[in-house]
Specification:
Elements: E1 6-9, E2 15-18, E3 26-29, H1 32-55
Antiparallel strand pairs: 1-2, 2-3
């Protein structure tokens, strides 16, 4: 499987990584290589937890548009 990630240089050094296709899946590292290695592990853990939740019968979240005023 492949996932697009967004690698973000941090002002104080290091990098943050966001996985847009997996809400809440983020990681970081001191170098680009470390950040990318770390996000691979984060993706695997995210998918594992998602699968466990699906097996437990937890309802999936839904998106609903709400009109205000």
């Amino acid at each position: 499987m492949k996932y697009a990630v967004r690698l973000i240089p941090e002002d104080e050094g290091g990098f943050s990584v966001v996985v847009p296709g997996l809400p809440g899946c983020v990681s970081q590292g001191e170098t680009r290589a470390e950040a990318l290695d770390n996000v691979k592990e984060a993706i695997l853990l995210y998918l594992e937890v998602s699968q466990e939740s699906a097996n437990e019968g937890e309802p999936e979240s839904v998106s609903i548009d709400v009109k205000v005023a």
